[in-house]
Design a protein that fits this description.
The chain has 154 residues and is of the alpha+beta class. The protein contains 2 helices and 4 strands; from the N terminus they run H-H-E-E-E-E. Helix content is 52%, strand content 22%. A hairpin with a 5-residue loop joins strand 1 and strand 2.
Length: 154
């Protein structure tokens, strides 16, 4: 009879020991499942941060061109080169566009040089746009980022 009791307790201990081992194995399996999910999440955050950094750099470069347009808005090639020179993203002058627009005091858009209906003079606005193709990490997908700045020149 005594041997039977020892056998029963021994089997309970063996079952309990197996449960402890399976908990350790479950933690390893859970870790293996969640690591790719957490890595993808962190990679997305890093991609977003890098894209926003590049967008801020584009906007800063466009502002540099707009500041130069305050001095002389007629030389668009110099303004475009100033935008290219003020960033290290590898832009070319073909990535930069400049536009000039005019409006009257009431806010209506008119052709530059035309007279307004109320006899007021035109307000001249100069806009500098820069675009850049940002490539996402690991995915290889390219998204287009744009930065612009507008100043009143007259």
């Amino acid at each position: 009879m005594m041997n039977l009791r020892c056998f029963r307790f021994g089997s309970v201990r063996a079952a309990a020991g197996g449960a402890m081992r399976s908990k350790r194995g479950a933690a390893a399996v859970e870790f293996a499942i969640f690591i790719p999910i957490i890595s993808a999440f962190l990679l997305g955050i890093i991609n977003y941060g890098l894209a926003m950094f590049d967008k801020m750099e584009l906007t800063s470069a466009a502002r540099a061109g707009a500041q130069l347009a305050l001095l002389d808005s007629s030389s668009t090639s110099v303004i475009k080169q100033a935008v290219v020179d003020s960033t290290n993203l590898g832009l070319t002058t073909s990535d930069v566009t400049t536009t000039e627009a005019c409006e009257c005091a009431d806010g209506s858009t008119v052709t530059c040089g035309a007279t307004c209906g109320d006899g007021s003079s035109n307000r001249y606005y100069f806009t500098v746009n820069a675009s850049y193709g940002h490539t996402l990490l690991l995915l290889g997908t390219t998204i287009t980022l744009n930065g612009s700045a507008t100043v009143r020149t007259q």
